Amino acid sequence: MNSAPEAVPPGRARLVDLLLAAALFVALFFVYRPALDAGFVWDDDGHLTQPALRGTDGLARIWTDPTAAQQYYPLVHTLFWLEHRAFGAEPAGYHWINLALHACAALLCVGVLRRLALPGAWLAGALWALHPLQVQSVAWISEQKNTLSACFYFAAWLAWARFDEGLLRGTRRYGAWAAFVLFALAAVLSKTVTCTLVPAILLVTWAREGGRGWTKRVPWVVLPFLLAASFAVVTPWLEREVGRVGGAEHPTDLADFLPRLAVAGKDLWFYLGHLAWPPGTCFVHPRWSTTGPLGPSLLPAVAFASCTLALFTLRKRIGRSPVVALLYFAGTLFPALGFVDAIPVRYSFVADHFQYLAGLGPIVLVAAGGAVLVRRVAPGAAAALRFLALLVLFVLAFLARGHAKDFQDAETLWKATLEKNPGAWMAWNNLVDELNRQGRFAEAVETGLVARRLHPDRPTLAHNLGVALQSQGRLAEALACYEFAAKQAPEYGRIEFDRASALIELGRPAEALEALARTIELTPGFAAAHMLRGNALLALRRSDEALEAYQRALELDPAYAQGWYNLGVARATRREFALAEAAYRRALDLAPDELGARLNLGVVLAQEGRRLEARVELERVAREG
Fold first, then answer.
1. In the chain, how many domains are there?
2. Which end of the chain has the least Cβ crowding within 10 Å, N or C?
């Protein structure tokens, strides 16, 4: 893999590089054009609209509070904070930035490969950038942590290469080393999977030079490795404590080491297979069972280890590159192989975005091998190989573009996922939730009933079906769904909240208060829970307590229009018409089209004897109603 390239005049080489970079940008634009007009999907809006990103103290919370977000990736959330300032709730800007980061990562990757004097650097960079398995990382805004961390990862490697070059010549380039440490730290603060950078650098160094120079190098990588490892410990803890990995809703199924090893073996072969044959890309891949006999389930892991050992044994005959490519692939994937509990194992043991960096190992091996072969065969065969490489890039680009279309919006994504993986309970659940969000409750009920027949044990699915049923007036069925969900997942306060809502509609406010007590215990800052508690208290004619509940809701969320409306109702029932008027006017300031608040304002004004003003409001209701 270390064959020297033919000498090319520097000016011509720069021109070729510029043309290749431009061609790669055009190809990436072609692939991801459908995603640039796409909306938010799944947890995108959760990353972009949470309080840590909205308030003026958002930046401080992002860096100082590890629980401000589901994962402690402060550089990513800082970028989201800036994007939110620039683009608000418009997704196009986020998509453009994610694509730009992916393109920059690809160019930096090419730079690293060329610095390592590997043949086929541009081919490897293009294969990596255009591969359909990368679509999930680029078209899904939440995975900006992949694209951003990759930029820092490759930048750190380039800085290390410059430092290492000087180190071996006896000159210490401290500026390059400082840049290496800072970029490596930035990478791990964007995504902790990049903690594998230092082992990857040492592995590739061994491939190129064997054991030479290690005593000089190792002391200089200890600090960045320890920093990366310390941050890598934080992510699993947060996913366990904040993300609630495990439990009734999200079992890991992996209590012991050997079952985890069995899953890791299947994962490795799965990713290798999809790198070689990518038409099966899917947002949620099937989650294989872990309940079979342990012996046969360990065979994939044994086979992978055997292949690695065989390549290591043959290294003097075939070179170190094959075993290094495989070890880089497995080592970079290690954090996502199931040995550490993580949120995505709720749905599947594999995900396309896990291999974003890891896939580079096999890709570089193939590209470098192809480049070496082109130099050694006859001109006609070399031309055929170049044409084959170009054809592969075209096929990958068209497959990736097709997958990028799946990310057009949430409904499209979940339906596309179910076409490829009908057993994906998460896709069923999120499709029902999306239909509810769009107000298409009849379709949500129909879809939810099918999904529950397939997955009767999933509490969030039962919960979302309950929301759809309640919106259709099927209160008894909705309540049954809520009660099942609450029993299976008692840690989710939102289920108890919706159960309380159904109980109030059924005329059972006392029972609703019990459910709301549980909701408020679990989520004390949930303003809507305090508002609903006020409704239940008002139904029980406990108006003083209802007023306190409404006021608490408005303390938590002063811009809560429904809370001001309900406060107005409570004031009006106590014949406190001036205070009721003020509450209704505040509700209308926040939601000018709320006809209920305008109607009640007219009634209150009439009660106060202000008939002309009342007539104006009531006539407007009649016109707009």
1. 2
2. C
Contact 418, 424 (CB under 8 A): yes
Within 10 A of 473 (CB to CB), how many other CB atoms are there? 10
Q: 250: helix, coil or strand?
A: strand
What is the rounded CA–CA span in Å between residue 478 and residue 202?
58
Q: Indicate if the pLDDT at residue 4 is higher than 70.
A: no
pLDDT of 51 reads 60
Residues 400 and 415 in one domain: no
Confidence class of residue 5 from pLDDT cuts 50, 70 and 90?
A: very low
Contact (Cβ atoms closer than 8 angstroms) between residue 275 and residue 133: yes
Which of 374, 343, 526, 502 is CA-nearest to residue 6? Answer: 374
| Average pLDDT value for residue range 493-508 | 96
pLDDT in tens, 411-466: 999 999 999 999 999 999 999 999 999 999 999 999 999 999 999 999 999 999 99
- Based on the domain organization, do 198 and 295 belong to the same domain? yes
Statement to judge: residues 74 and 86 lie in one domain: yes
Distance CA 497, CA 521 (A): 11
pLDDT at position 99, please? 98
Q: How many CA atoms lie within 13 A of 259 on its CB side?
A: 14
Question: Could you write out the three-class secondary structure of 86-148?
Answer: HHCCCHHHHHHHHHHHHHHHHHHHHHHHHHCCCCCHHHHHHHHHHCHHHHHHHHCHHHHHHHH
pTM: 0.89
Q: What is the DSSP letter of 3?
A: P
Q: Which domain holds residue 252?
A: 11-407
Q: Which residues of 586-612 are buried (b: 16+ CB within 10 A; e: fewer)?
A: bbbebbeebeebbbbbbbbbbeeebee
